[in-house]
Amino acid sequence: MKGKEVSVCAFIFARGGSKGLPGKNIRELGGVPLVAHSIRTAQQVARVRKIYVSTEDEAIARVARQFGAEVIDRPAELATDTAPEWLAWRHAIDTVFARDGAFDVFLSLPATSPLRSVDDVDACLDALNDSTDVVVTVTPAARSPYFNMVTRTQEGQTNLVIGGHGAARRQDAPAVYDLTTVAYVTRPEFVRTHDRLFDGRVGSVVVPKIRAVDIDDIHDFQFAEVLIRAEQQ
User: Fold this and answer.
1) Which residues are bridge partners to 197 per DSSP?
2) What is the dihedral of CA 114, 116, 128, 89, to 10 degrees?
3) 138-151 pLDDT, tens per residue?
4) How many angstroms separate the Cα of 81 from the Cα of each of 16, 19, 76, 181?
5) pTM, whole model, 2 decimals?
6) N or C: which end of the chain has fewer CB within 10 A?
7) Residue 160 CA to its chain's centroid (Å)
């Protein structure tokens, strides 16, 4: 997407019903509510036209407005533990098209990755091109299905997830990566006409582990606090 004049809208999808860490999306990290970290990052990305927070939770909506984002009221059925976020993406796109008009690029910045940088987001936007339908972020994995990840039968028989490679050291096995929640970039029509990310041609941007922390529970949150404090010193 380099060099092209396109309209980019940023979206943050934040439910109120987190089980792993209740109230996490408005819990303060470094003195700022978690969801506001994503809003602030989006505000620093020059190509972003508008920023939306999709939520069913009024407390999250108040914080979103306070920090300068517009709110999309997410239907309750799209905010349950079992509702695919893809459907919330589709709802948000349809809402913006009806309310504010069409746009070219959909950028999702999950609230759970507050340590991303503006450069990470710009790299993802640049990576969306004629050969990709979706861009995701990845970080080097600590474990490898070729070397130290195994399956186990009921009888205890244990085997490598991917055997036959013959790597004697992890460094000799093919490089593998963990998907992160730093950013997702795609086009609105792809979300409207497909059912999941990997239905299309997926590109990726590698993000260092220190910026790819994904907050799911209190331990993740505490780790992010340590990193934020170190950054602020």
Assistant:
1) none
2) 0
3) 999 988 888 888 99
4) 10, 9, 11, 17
5) 0.90
6) C
7) 29
